[in-house]
Amino acid sequence: MSTTVEVPVVKPVVPARRTKFLTNLWKVLRRKPSRMIGAFIVALFVVMGVIGPWLYPDNLPKSADLLAGPSLSHLLGTDFEGADVLAELVIGSRYVLTAAAVAALVTVVVGVAVGLYAGYRRGRPDSALMRITDFVLTIPGFPLLLVLTTVWKFDSALQMGLVLGLTGWGGLARSVRSQTLSLRERGFVEAARGLGLSTPHIVSRELLPNIAPYVAMNLLIGVTTFIYSQVGLFYLGVLPYNSTNWGVMIQLAVNNGVTQTGAGLSYLMAPLVAILLLTLGVVLLVDAMDEVFNPRLRED
Amino acid sequence: MTTATESSTVDERTSPGVRIRDLTVAYRTPAGELPAVSGINLDLAPGSITGLVGESGSGKSTMALAMLNAVQQPGRITGGAIEIDGLGDVLSLSPKQIRAVRGGSIGYVFQAAQNSLNPLKTVGKQLLDLGRSHGVEDRRALVRQARELLSRMGLSGERVLDSYQHELSGGMRQRVGIMLALVLNAHVLVLDEPTTALDMISQANILSIISDVHAERGLTTLVVTHDIGVVAEVADRVAVMYGGRLVEQGPTVDVLRTPSHPYTKGLITAIPRLTGDPDVARPLPGRPPTLGTIPRKGCVFRERCAVYAAGAREDCETLDPPAHDVGGGRLVACHAVEGEQ
Amino acid sequence: MSGEIEGVGIVKTYQARGDVLKGQAVQALRGVDFRIPAGGAASFIGESGCGKTTLGRILAGLETYDSGQLRVDGVDLSALRPRKREPYFRRIQMIHQDPYSALNPTRTVDAILTDPLTLRAKQTGRPKSWIAERQREVLSLVGLEPDYVLPRYPHQLSGGMRQRVVIARALTVDPDALVADEAVSMIDVSLRLGILKLLRELRETVGVSVLFITHDVATARYIGSDGELYVIYRGQIIEHGPTETVIADPVHPYTQCLLSAIPVLHGLERPGPDRLVPTEPLADSQSDTGCLFAARCPFVTDRCRTERPELGHDGGTGQEHACFHPERRHVVAVSA
What we know:
Radius of gyration of chain A: 24 Å
Shape of chain C: globular
Shape of chain A: globular
Mean pLDDT of chain A: 80
Structural class of chain A: mainly alpha
Largest sheet of chain C: 8 strands, mixed
Strand order of the largest sheet of chain C: 6-7-8-3-9-10-13-12
Low-confidence stretches of chain C: none
Helix content of chain C: 25-40%
Number of helices of chain A: 12
Mean pLDDT of chain C: 87
Number of helices of chain C: 11
Largest interface: B-C, 51 and 50 residues
Order of helices and strands of chain C: EEEHEEHEHHHHEHEHEEHHEHEEE
Strand content of chain A: under 5%
Number of strands of chain A: 0
Number of strands of chain C: 14
Oligomer: heterotrimer
């Protein structure tokens, strides 16, 4: 065996000045095509949720064509009242996405705050916070929501999101706490204490950036998890009837015999495929999170 | 304590010689394939202990892995041969053959042995795993051999075999590593940083054990380390690596007494000493190269070289210095040294 | 110059975890005394687990101690309330062993230095413009080029450079003392002396005292050949004196074992005339009765097993030891 290795000319590494977050994000996304696809899908749904409903009137026109399949005038067919499925999908996305985003945000904010503080301070604050966390973890989220719906109609996506979020932060708090426990032993955290830097500084500037990839991933995946929770609730018919909601769409499709007769299949499939597509987008995008927040991986 | 100058009485028929010829290992990076080890020529005489000395980025750890043809992706061996008496060229063996060779003919002791022991299994179980994967049928003989080796190293074989990795101290784990490397009667032993994470006294004891075991079993040993002290205590010959190249090799005592290559000189001078004027020790300017910053043309050491700084030579900039025989079993790769001859 | 540090009878005991009913105590420090003059140097050597790291952490304020007195500039810290102790501990800064984990990987050197400097500016009533100036000052004190290092992240710097940044960061709070715990053991051999030289120079340029904790005696000697050497075994100081004296003429068998274990650079050096073969502690439990080293000592007698020797003077040399049968032995290598 005798092959020579051609040593290419290596350009001297010119360090960048502190690049902006968005520039970084773009660079990281461009590195793998799968991430671009993921970002595109997520962006598409965000646009759909924000702008979509404005493109349609409040009351969708009903046609005589009930449970029809895809056609040129109705790209995804019609529902059991003859309304356009695509329109319903777009309108319904706003509630679902908003609620899921709010829930994910609440989970992350509360979970990370509790986990960081408990893990860093230890001792009595830690025990107290962990007791509360255990309580939240033990609450069976789903049955609780079912019970709550008897007294509270979740009209706005915000309310839905809040409740979902407040019941779901337990797991994140625990795992952030254990990461914090090991991080605080690292030299730079001890050094920060020795230099007299304040606890808020240490928690927000030393600890938080080091768990940022984990938090970002949780945020994104949390969105998909909460979409499932909602859809489940709406499908069970537990929550208010609102025909332009994905979960309700699935419920109504089944109730109108789509699974038995096969008519109006696109009415059933549309929301399901939408959820699947969004999950796919999130999963592909999550891959970029580690690199975005970790300078070590961002070498050019 | 055995010193490096004592010769070992060894039956040369059982100790194999090792000849490394023109070995090159490259790593795939975003900037292309870069060589971590370049054109290494090294002979390990039968029954000798050779110390391979280098800092980070010198390629010494890659060299150690290459001996077992165990260089992992993104690295690969791109050229050269490693011939071992009785085995042929290790680099051209089939996967099945190489698996038998690892452990069976070449024993490898990993750096920081605590990372190479399975934390969930007792030492004894891992020993049996080793035996099974090498098709050893007589398990009792294997365990007996292991106990003998362990007691030879001052441990209670019974107790150690029943222990988990975390129940043993650093020095004990290192001994277990050595036992596992030799229990299948390998005759070539490669040790990667055998004394890292051990304190001075444990280190001295392990080095003593390595010397003794080497002599008793008639091994040919390669010790890879960054610590010249380790080499001085245990090796007959020393080979110095820098930037993937072998810059100097020769009998340990001679190289330490009168180093030839500017890097070897600088390295020895940069060691703080226990006697004499402390300021005799001088730091070496610059820093060791990384894979991406190794100069691609000319001598890899010139940026830190005192001789080059005193008077830049054209051949240092354009030609990679070849290994030059300077007599007494010593080879030096330096244009300035060659010029003086 | 201010900043004399003195410790008297420092005791630290850890409660070993495990059995809820039968907690076993581990005595990390059994009453150690030491003194580091302002701008001076002191080295603590010993095997792993001897308590030297614990001592370093106590001095830097990262661990508490159970009893004894720790005095900085004559002020007994144990007499102060925890809040009042902080400013004193800030005057003693720790240089960790691992230069990578000692720097936040998500922050640039600029940010890493700005944080403590902002605090310092506030404390000393200086304007914001001072911060950038002082940044450059401390970086040049440690031999780094500010324009090169400031925008970089830790992983973009070599181990030696990172350790220099760590030292620069410690200097931002104008400390009186630096505690260097194995500060060069994770750095390449050819770069170690550079850092050691820096620490030695800082004693003169800035007036800090250096407390060097290591198992590598030669590095301790380089930094503090004019200082004191303390040898710790299982939480007790068993020998101390001027560095050069203890290295050349150790009196306690443990010191002799430790120094004998140092590799000899054959060709350049010869083994010392009295060099010993050191014994290793392979058994887990070691007895606490009598001399702590009795189980491993090559010169042990019956008295050693029952009575524990106290640290005492050898008479006329400034060297103290804790041994019933002290004898000078020259064990370290001599020039060939």
